[in-house]
Design brief:
Layout lengths: L1 H13 L8 H5 L7 H12 L3 H11 L6
């Protein structure tokens, strides 16, 4: 169950449309209300903090051309 919640959080963090949302806002809908706890369990699962994950994924995503 926790793994599925973290997968959904990771999808939100990787979404360019949600790039401006605070990390706590991304985690809350999935029942992860304590930011420190969320950061610890996310790092244990993905090997990096939610902030670092978001930064890495969004930097590697090509931006659409006008």
């Amino acid at each position: 169950m926790r793994t599925r919640r973290l997968e959904r959080c990771a999808r939100y963090l990787a979404s360019p449309a949600r790039a401006k949302e605070p990390i706590s806002t991304v985690a809350a809908p999935w029942g992860l209300l304590d930011c420190r706890h969320f950061s610890r369990v996310f790092k244990a699962e993905y090997g990096e903090t939610p902030r670092d994950f978001r930064r890495r994924v969004l930097m590697s995503t090509p931006t659409p051309r006008p």
